[in-house]
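User: Before I run my own analysis I want an independent prediction to cross-check against. Here's the chain; please return only the structure tokens and, at the end, one sentence I can use as a sanity check.
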Amino acid sequence: MQTPPEHILETEPEALAEWLAAQGEPGYRLDQVLEWAHRRWADSFEAMTNLPASLRRRLAAAYRLAGPAERHADVSADGRTGKLLLELEDGERIESVWMTERGRHTFCVSSQAGCPLGCLFCATGASGFTRDLTTAEILGQVTALARRTGALRNVVFMGMGEPLLNLGAVGAVLTALADPRRFGLGARHLTVSTAGITPGIRELADGGVRPNLALSLNSPFEEERRKLMPVTRTYPLAEVLDACSDYADRTGRRLLIEYVLLGGVNTDPPAARGVAKIARSLGALVNLIPFNAVEGCPFRAPTRGERSRFAYILERAGVKVTERYRRGRDISAACGQLRRSHR
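Assistant: Structure tokens:
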């Protein structure tokens, strides 16, 4: 079976420069190709109209450029959130989301087809896990969303899957997104969310691009967290928090704690005080996420009183708190609602 050509979004600029030089092309062609692929989000080499037709044909023979195929798109009633169902070359399907706030777009991308973690409150884990996504498949989501919105500013790895279980591809994506010659986003415009994969957190701190780090906490108590998030049986909370503290110290970046409020489960005052203690020790910001309905999940959204009380306890303890507006619920694009197929 013939190996398919390398995808140009996975090609390092140095390797592409060598190929172009071997083709007898002048040095400035590299900048032109990089601009088309990474900043103008071209979906074909034929679209690169300032390149000679002969070069476009040779590029098409040597590299791939096509991204995931768009199978369905939903836009929320307020027009500020959208979701794409994308099909990969092997038929696997993933979902990606864009969100708009004050004219600025944030792209929420997936790192795996499905998710192996099985968190009880998340639809993605319930849909099962097939495989990791490649660098090109993740970057293909970025370019698809950019073509949809006409802009690129922030990228968060908060879609389907656990990014730190696919750190090889995710690290390469971070490098491409931060590279001034390619997508040109600074590291402060990139965020990786994790359920607490301790080795991955430490490896991310050693990487060349150090994004913002978000920890999905969901309970300050070890036993309760294990019930909600089975992965924590492998990565105890104390070890996770130690890795997060080290990441914050080494990078100088403020940690974000994500906390899904499950009505009647993890919203009582002892839980709030436990979260406050952790957040203070890490100097972290806490983002409260009211549970979004997921078919088959035995949880409910928190009441307004539960939400207010939880936030009040954190604020009284000197912790900065934000609450994630449950945008995109009408199109199942909110936190925990992404699946691998459109219904």
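Sanity check: The domain at 6-64 is CATH 1.10.150.530 (DNA polymerase; domain 1).
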